[in-house]
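Dear colleagues,

As part of the handover before I leave the project, I'm documenting each prediction I ran so the next person doesn't have to rerun anything. This entry is a single chain, and its sequence is reproduced below.
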Amino acid sequence: MHNAILLPHWQTIPCIKSAATLLLLLCLSACGGSSGPSMVIVTGTVSGFSNDGLSLSDGLNAITVPTNATTFSFPTHMNADLIFSVNILAQPVGLQCYVDQRFHTASLENNTPVNVTCGVENSLGGVVTGLTDGQVLTLANGTDTVKLTSASKNFSFPTKLFPGVRYGVSVKTQPDLRHCSVVNGSGTMGTDAIRNIEINCI
């Protein structure tokens, strides 16, 4: 029979502390340690951008996008699942840019890039049918107006719009003995002219 060796209490306490420390380190290692929250880098794409002067902000940093760039990224990582928005601080020379959607969510699994579209001013218009001699119709897009007659087949508003600008066409003044309605009259201006607004008078 082996005799048990008993250590003095001043020797057993350090042993217990060492074992507890080792166990804690092993548990932290198995659980990933004490690392902080997952971080995501915010990236994006730019289309139609060819001039100097485009500046963006994600709420943490402001960046200037190089001329002719097609992509961009912000220098500071964000916590995953954080809701953020990218805003345009300065427009490029001769162009207007807009962000595809206002809010984004930083995600590790589906890190969809922010899309920025730039372009020049384009016309807003369409076709009109049903007006007869002597009848005059007035259309409005905000404060911008255009008058149409029986000779009008196609129309355009005098003020052109940049990409990202919302429009809403309505009938300001109906013609005599006719009622006109608007089809495809609202939306957001893209990088091409709008020509599909229909005015039907009966």
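The chain has one helix and 19 strands. The longest strand covers residues 166-173.

All the best with the project,
I.
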